[in-house]
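Practice problem: predict the structure.
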Amino acid sequence: MIQYGRNILGDGAQIFEPVILGFPSREYLGVEEYQGTIIGKNAILRTGTILYCNVIIGDNFSSGHNTIIRENTSIGDNTAIGTSTVIEGDCVLGKNVHLQSMVFLPTDTIIRDDVFIGPNSILTNDRYPPSKRSELKGPVLEDRVTIGANVTILPGIHIGEGAAVAAGSIVTKDVPAGMLAIGAPARLRPLPEEMRRL
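Answer:
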C-alpha cells in the first residue's frame, strides 16, 4: 500500500495491492503533512483503488478494481463502489449506496441513502462545457433512488425520493419522488408498484 499524508484505516481492512491512500490534490503536491484518507472498519480495497486526500469513508466499505475517489468526498457506511468507477472531488454519498462498474460521478454530486446506480451510468455537472468551477452543478439523488444501466443524467438534475430511471435513459428534467423516468429524452410515468423500494 502506498500512502501520502496522514491516513487512518479502521480495523479489519483487507487490502489487495497496489492501493493508494491520501493521494495529493493539486494544492498538496510537494507537501508532506496534510489530511489523507480516513476509512472505517472492515473495508475491502481491491487492486488499483486510489483514494485522494480528505476522503472520509464509513464502515464496511468495498471498492472494485481501479476505483478512483477524488478529494473532499465523504461516503457513508455499507457502501460499495464498482470496478473502474470514478468519483470526482467534493461529492457526498450516504449509507447503503451501491454503484456498479464504470459509473462516473462529477464534482458536487450528492447521493443520499439506499441508492443504486447501474453500470456505465454517467452523471454530469457542466451544461455548457467548459465552464468555470463556480458554474458547475452536480445532480442530487434522494433516498432510495434506483438508476438502471447506461443512464445519462444532465447537470443539476434532482431525482426525488424513491424514484427510478430506466436503463438507457437520458434525464434532462427533474424526476419527482415516486416517479419513473424512461426514454431519451426521459419522460415521466408513475412508478409501477413492483418497482417501489421500501
